[in-house]
Design a protein that fits this description.
The complex is a heterodimer of chains A (229) and B (131). Chain A has eight helices and 15 strands. Chain A is of the alpha/beta class. In chain A, strands 2-1-3-4-5 form a five-stranded parallel β-sheet. In chain A, strand 13 and strand 14 form a beta hairpin. In chain A, helix 2 packs parallel to helix 3. Chain A is globular and about 55 Å long. Chain A starts with a strand and ends with a helix. The model of chain A has no long low-confidence stretch (mean pLDDT 86). Chain B is mostly helical and 131 residues long. Chain B is 75% helix and 0% strand. Chain B contains six helices and no strands. The radius of gyration of chain B is 17 Å and the shape is elongated. The N terminus of chain B is likely disordered. Classes of the chains: A alpha/beta (229), B mainly alpha (131). At the A-B interface, helix 1 of A face helix 1, helix 2 and helix 4 of B.
Chain lengths: 229, 131
Amino acid sequence: MKFTAVIVEDLSVAADVLHKYCIKSGKINVVQLFKSTEEAIPFLSENAVDVLFLDIEMPGANGFSLLDQMQYQPQVILTTSKTEYAFDAFEYSVVDFLRKPFSYQRFTQSLDKLKPLNEKKEEVEEMSHVFIKSDGKLIRLNNDDILYIESMGDYVKFITNDKKIISHNTIKALTEKINPDVFCKVHRSYIINMNKISDIRDNTLYIANAKIPVSKANRSTVMSRIKIV
Amino acid sequence: MQAISDTVFQLSSQFDGMFLLEMHDNDLAAISDIFITSHQQLSEESSKYFWLAENGEIAELKRRVHLVKPLWGYCGLSEFQDKFQQMENFFSTNPTISDAIIRLEEEKPFIREGLELIRMEAIKIQEYLKQ
């Protein structure tokens, strides 16, 4: 089975060569090519892909801002002509970092680092709950019990109907670990359980009695995930 | 893949021929296409550099140098890509307008040289493919 992929690259020569490499490998099915993050966001909000080939410096928003706005975590291979981004790449847990221009051989080395598709699916199936570290214990929380998660600097607060549990973690790190079918990052300080929203008014949503802000960057993703009849 | 005639085409020594042939599976027509597209884009972009410098648009100048920088590499001219990287680094330091113009004056001959290399090589390949 082939990986589905999207290429986000503003330089057409680079996008063409990368596309050609994908076809040649026989492992990647490129479903779309985009020239900017702004063009890619609406598509990626509605279509989950396995792999994202992403340039970093592009007109408008850069590649990392696209990763910040995504509600699921595809496997990311960065393509750039600068090496200064290596540290950020590490922060975003990218699979590989390709310096343009790169050879076909170097490209195939990147593909070898991708997690097989069945391995990823098993991971998601197992994501019906999380274990969080708090007060020296590992506490099990079922996804369905979590209303939302709020950032507190280096800590996060898990809010359920009857308790608040504080754990050493960050919203960014959690985004990659929680079940993307259930949870959604709506703001840099909030992840919510999509099944718990009671009301949305402008840029605020309500869960139980809590008012939760929705950032401009995340609004289109949130709206694309709710069913309006 | 291009059929090879009785003489084998040799890319000029300034180009990383092995890299280009591997990238395009020995397809000379594809290499020629890359040369033509890159030449056009590099010419268009570099023609704006002086105007941007004179108008103090140094951040935009830096961004535009960055944008087309890899095209040199895609043409097998890594030395020119490195030169563009140095230019980009220089413009990142937010130089004065006069320093930016002096730098562009210094770089002008090498940009011309690079563009001419690409243009001539594209013609050479096309002549060979017509045989």
